Amino acid sequence: KTEFSFLNTPEIIFLDNKEINSEEKHTFSGVLDAKADKSSFWLDDNLGKRGVVFGISQSLDSEKLNRLQEWITLNQTEVDERLFDLSVGMSSQIIDVDIPDNLFLQKPLLIRIGITTSPQFFSQIILLRLGDNAHAKIMLEILSSTDADNQSILPNILFGGLGKNAQLDLIESQQAAGTIWYLPYENIHISKR
Predict the structure, then answer these.
(1) Which of 22, 60, 61, 115 measures 20 to 30 Å from 4, CA to CA?
(2) In sequence order, which ranges of the chain are alpha helices (DSSP H)?
(3) Distance in angstroms (rounded) separating the CA atoms of residues 90 and 6
(4) pLDDT tens-digit profile, the chain (193 residues)
């Protein structure tokens, strides 16, 4: 049996419609804020009822664990193995995004990852899956506001799979202090149309 554990376990808060910023509620289908000490997420209720998964996990079912292990093994030969292994091994949580077949998200999903305190190594794994004929726009926002004396390392590991005729618009924005090292590892598998 293979087990996967996380470096630290931040508090995870699910926000309901009353707790989410009204501007973000009207702009996005879901909002996820990941920080080292506390993470929160919100997903439009109608999308949850339609099978959309958008949240934070600190455990893996066997299917996701197998997909993640397969992807890690494949990518270890393509990247700087030591830093990649360290990034996987020191992950804080998994951000899970799963859009079912034939679903078109009218508004984007926002994933905001930020470091706002002392220096840290803050690694995330993002598992992304779009079913056949699904369409989604995802905004990945990287934020840091640490001072000049504090250096941080922020590796993000994104593993995605797109079904047949699926469409993903992935937009990445960085508002990072000059003292942050942002290291993305991204791999998206696209099914044949």
Answers:
(1) 115
(2) 22-27, 45-49, 62-76, 81-89
(3) 7
(4) 445 555 556 667 777 767 777 888 889 999 998 887 778 889 999 999 999 999 887 666 667 667 667 766 666 555 556 676 777 766 777 888 999 999 999 999 999 888 766 657 777 888 889 999 999 999 998 877 656 666 777 777 777 889 999 999 999 888 766 667 777 767 676 765 5
Pairing of strands 38-43, 11-14: parallel
Tokens of 91: 């992950």
Question: Would you say the C-alpha torsion 67, 84, 138, 57 has a positive or negative sign?
Answer: positive
Residue corresponding to tokens 């202090």 = 177
First to last CA, the chain: 36
Q: Say which amino acid occupies 104.
A: F
| Whole-number Cα distances in Å, 183 to 51, 67, 68, 190 | 31, 22, 18, 23
Supply the pTM of this predicted model: 0.79
CB 188 within 8 A of CB 128: yes
**82 burial level (CB within 10 Å; 0-12, 13-18, 19+):** exposed
